[in-house]
Specification:
The structure holds 2 protein chains of 2 kinds. Chain A is mainly alpha-helical. Chain A has 10 helices and no strands. Helices cover about 80% and strands about 0% of the residues of chain B. By secondary structure, chain B is mainly α. Classes of the chains: A mainly alpha, B mainly alpha. At the A-B interface, helix 1, helix 2, helix 3, helix 4 and helix 5 of A face helix 1, helix 2, helix 3, helix 4 and helix 5 of B.
Chain lengths: ~280, ~260
Amino acid sequence: MSKGQMPVPETVLVKEKAFAKKKIPIAHKQTRRQQQYFFITAGILFVICFMQIDLSFTQFQAGVARIPSVLEMMMQLSFAELPELASEMVVSLVTAFLSLVLSILLAVVLSFLAARNTTPNKYFGMLLRFLFMIIRAIPATVWVLIAVASIGFGTMAGVLGLIFPTLSYLVKSFSAQIEEVGQETIEALQSVGATWWHIVFRGLIPTLLTSFLAITAFRFEMNVAESVILGMVGAGGIGLLIQGYISFYDFSSLSLGIIMVFITMFTLEFMTNQIRRRMSH
Amino acid sequence: MSARNKPSMNAVEMRRMKASLSVIFFALLILFSIWFVEMDIFELIQSMPIFFHFLFTDFFPPNISDLDTYIGPVVDTLIFAVVTTSLSSLLGIVIGFCMAHNTTPHPAVRIFFRGIIAFLRNIPFLVWASILVVIFGVGTMPGLFALVLFGTSFLARVYAESIEELNKEGVEALDACGASYLQKIKHGIMPQFLPSFYSWTLFMFEINIRASAILGLVGAGGMGSILKQTMDLFQYGKTSTVIAIMVILILMVEYVTNRVRERLI
């Protein structure tokens, strides 16, 4: 933030009187050059890449022509599917919640094993961090696809598939918190002869509890979004219904489903914001 | 539970009761969830070995016979991410300036964009993608539009939030000098806002790489389509190769964006 310097209007004014019409460069030179490099590179990359994509104008026109009729169909809300949609929405929420609970249980242990300053063995910690880096790089949807392929369609596949990305996210954020906040506590406890168990359970967990809860609340929001998507690849929940409506062109039920997802996500966002605000006090 | 009898409860007791109440609440919530989806914990534990057995026998060794046919989709994914990130950062910055309360041209404009962006952002992008597949047909176009839609709504929100967090003194000083709206943005807002602009745009690029990897699952092109194809044909050896390529690509992009971010900020 330090390089993007603010112009100081008073000096500008004073100098403007002295040199009547000459413009005075006030921007930081190096920053300006960097900005130019960044935007020019981005622009060139964009133009090159845009040329590579073959977008057919006729397809675009046909699509745009179809929008009004689709919108018209979506406007005719039908509440016939409401009970089914509501119960599947709860299934999605439950999938997200259960996978989060299971991941928290594992993550609390694993993050202390993986964090640089609390790991019992340096190489073991490194191995764990590397493993979770790879798990995190695989998108959640792919994990669920693998779970569906191995244990069949259903909620269980969703829960199992979501555990991996959730766990790796939690381990990463938790151990970052441990590394950031923990050092002083650890040194203080070590100097009075505390063991690893004492440090973790008496020293670190009580101090880090609020930040862990904030991370978890944020992750729950992400998990619900994921579990809505998961239905679309065959793991139960509201996504399954939405995918069905789309493939049968049942747009009136589809719009009800979309509204339901929106209301749920919006409420969740509001709630997590409240939780975070209260925790920061 | 003696809260009503003793109104002068001390803070420690109060906090302890709050903690135990929330623990009970969460326990009930977990029980309800397990009952609702009729999940069997033992079945889940039993399915773990099946899952790992499947993961390690069917997915290994990776089948690399079709390696050269995967290059096209990988390049496509990168191109997709560049184009969609640029388009959505352009749109996002315009909407972001309209949405932030200190730069919005009119409060009504702000509320209008807030509503639309909140709606777009809270629907998972795969839903948009599959609706767009219905409208535009299978191909790269629906995927492109879905990513732009999602990216714009995400970036507009975070840009607006970082604009609102900037300190007001600079703009106030410029106001006192009689600067116009555009001058205020150029000299008062932009220099402070650029670091967070770079940071969020590069982050969006990472998200877009991941997202375009799974867009193929609903028929919107990219790496996801070969992933789905190989899985539908039970060629899990090939699937693991695709996943490995995806992991390498994502980690490489993460590394590069981190380096760029370090240089710029």
